[in-house]
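Please check this one:

***
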Amino acid sequence: METESEPYIRLATLRLLHEVVADLNTARSLADTVQTVADGVIAGLGYELSAVNLVRPDGDLIVAAVGGSAGAEALMAGRVGSRASWERRLSMGDRWGDLRFIPYTEGWVLDEDDVPEWHTPGPAPRFPDEWHPMDRLLAPMYTAGGAGGELIGVISVDRPRNGRRPGAWGREALQMYAFHAATAIGNARLRANMQRALLRLEREQQALRASEESFRQAFEYAPSGMAIAEMGGDHHGRLLRANDALCRLLGRTASALRRCSFSDLVHPKDMGTLMRTSAEGGRAELRLERRDGSYVWVSLRNSVVADAADGPRFQLTHVEDIEERKRHELQLAHRASHDSLTGLPNSAELRARLGSRLCAHPPRPGESGAGDAEAGGLSRGYDAFDGPGAAGVFDGPGGAGVFDRPGAAGVFERPGGSGVFDGPGGSGGPGVFDGPGGSGGPGVFDGPGGSAVGGIPYEPHVHAIAPREDDDVDDGHKGLAVLFCDLDGFKSINDRFGHHAGDAVLIEVARRLAGGVREGDTVARLGGDEFVVLADGLGRADAQDLAVRLRNAIIPPIRVDGRAVRVGASFGIGWASCGMTAEEVLHSADQRMYVEKRSRAKERRRAG
């Protein structure tokens, strides 16, 4: 290029360089950009062969594009050279700015390394700047446009068309081209990364939309109730969404449910269970109110959706109708504790209820039991009747009431209510013996460790104390009377007319006994033709009067299969007293019954 026409050549080269650099920015992908870089060396810089080597993530360099020779491309494309071999090449030879020229006189030591290349042997140069086939010229590409940046690749060129080693202008042009090529490759990689990110984002959005749609359909069309509630903030617990199954279960519209929370719907006695479940997640069984005011048993399963930054945000609740199962459970519990023939509490239930009224400690001298409790401002300690394993005198939902009547589910039940001591409104109201906070607050008759009434400590258990044994004097003391009843003449009816007639007689006697006692008294079938009545708050005279009334209720004829039969009854009256066991109390009443049976004249007994 040291001729008179060099300025014109420079101008033409500059024009070609401008064109190939412009082409670098038109490539649409990284692969197209790299190939354009290789082809631009051939078209604009006057070389017959070029290769673009790119740095891989592991540091080695791969031949990404070859220009000028199909044979060289077939031999070199896709092959990898180690980073160590390339670092060796870039550290030897002559430094032409950022370029590295390795003359054939030094490059022979590179013939055995692992860098892919296309070289053929040739004769020695005829003049000093003649290009030798084994010469190597390398143009490193850096991210910052110079040797101070990170190496992203190397352009290797071979066989200049004029057969000479490049002069100052040729070197400058190649170095400038390598700078623009590095920029174009960096931009192509950025575009490729952005395209991959956009594609990944679009796929994630599509998956999210598909997941949301799947969740929406699963939520809306689930066969059991589902709801989403807000957590935290001013509207904690408010329902945000409710599916059709939950609306049908509660008889409410979705818009009506969105204005309330589960705490507005739960039975007052189940509020504590709901609060624990909402705070801890998990599963709970409780009652929710329907639109008509009735309650339905449901199983709640909560899943808290938490945000790593802000804490819990939403609560997904699965609501399953378990009313039928609860009904079966109650029926099974009733069958286990009640006589299948008469519907009265059975022997085990009788002993449990009687035992729950007793304690192992006899009353202290001078203690008068229930009377003192009432004088102190407390009614009888019925809450203390709940003993370990006992059914409980005034059991809550699901427990059999102590003073059950045949066919009745609870002790002092009112129609539609779940218990005697429910407040106004039936089962939905707080119990009379509930504390100020309703079912969740401390009860008036809290157990050991409970709160005191008016701040004064008290003993929650009121001792059962028998009246004095002197039958001629009624000292006014009240106690728990145990009336042991044995039918007279029943065996002859059973033998004469069969077990069917005997069963009918037992059913009728049970009905008459239940009809002759107060609400709150217990009538139980002990077995065979033996019955027991528990009546609290009676004196000795009261108990004698009750026995006479019940005997008179049993004596009238009983119609069985069109015939009238009669049975009599013998009663023994025992008294429950703390310090005794249930078996001892029943045995005492049984013995008194046999004394009474033997003392009555045989001719006064009625037989069927």
